[in-house]
Structures are given as C-alpha cells and as structure tokens.
Amino acid sequence: MKLLMSLVAALSLLFTTAAVAEYGKQKVVYHINYDNPKKQAGALRNIQNHINAVGAENMEIKVVMHGNGLSLVTTPDALERTKLKHANANDDMQTRILGLKNQGVAFNACANTLKGKQINRENDLFDVAESDIVPSGVAELSHLQAQGYTYIKP
Fold first, then answer.
1. CATH number for the domain including 101?
2. Are 74 and 85 in contact (CB under 8 A)?
C-alpha cells in the first residue's frame, strides 16, 4: 500500500512539473462583479484549479471585485449596514479566500463601489486592507490588461 501511495505521489509531482513547464509564467486577472454565492465559490475553485495546473510560483493572480461582486468579501453581519443584497463571506468563503491569499492571490476592491454602496472597509469586509482598494474596478481591469494580464470572468 505504501508503495502504491508513493507511486501516486511521484506521478502527481511528475504531471504537475510537466504542466508547469508547458504553461510557463502567467499573469491573470479574474473579474467578479456578481453576487451569486455559487458562482463566486465556482470562481474561487477555478482560481485554485488554475494554480494547481501552473504552480503558485509561476502565477501572478489578481481578483478585481466591484459592484455586487464585493459581496464575496462582505461579512454576513455587515449586510444591514450596506446597500448589498448578499454578504457571502461566511466561514467557508473566508477559508477559501485565505487559502488563495496564502498562495499569492491578490484581492482588489473598488473604491467607487465602497462609496456608492456605503460599505466600510474596516467593519464590513473580510481581510481587505487599505492597500487592496483600487480607485475604480473597471479602470483597474483595463490597466492590468494593458500590463499583459489575461482577463478571465468566471
């Protein structure tokens, strides 16, 4: 049994190494502007699968959230204070977000949305630092694409 498990682990490492060599270094921006918790969970799964295929050390991934997409990092207790319909940063989503951040994924939030939907970064959002705020989500998407980031909207 140990031999079989060692063989599986070795093959997994071989395939991962081959995939990294095949794909090379990548810069990607994921765009989230919807508040559907199932789609948001699917987007986070897509990001993890992307990292698994290419390797975190070969990836530069940014997630840009604006509009209703900020519900991804809005805590449930903040819903009454904001103009959002959903607050999806429950324990499961928080764990997923932290797991991705630990692999180098950056999550950026739109300042225009914070103002327009009366969202307080410190009180309403999960693990969003001042440095994570961008002036405009849409402008950030365009800026990153001009820098060579591949645009993905899951």
1. 3.40.1260.10
2. no
Query: Computed from CA positions of residues 143, 30, 103, 126, in that sequence, does the dihedral angle turn out positive or negative?
Result: positive
Task: In whole angstroms, give the CA distance from residue 151 to residue 154.
Answer: 10
- Written as six digits, the tokens of 121 are 């970064």
**Residue 75 per-residue DSSP state:** -
CA–CA gap between residue 87 and residue 36 (Å, rounded): 10
Q: What's this model's pTM, rounded to 2 decimal places?
A: 0.85
State which residues form the domain around 87: 24-152
CA angle 61, 76, 67 (to 5 degrees): 50
Q: What is the pLDDT of residues 31-63, one digit of tens each?
A: 999 999 999 999 999 999 999 999 999 999 999
Element (H, E) at 41: helix 37-54
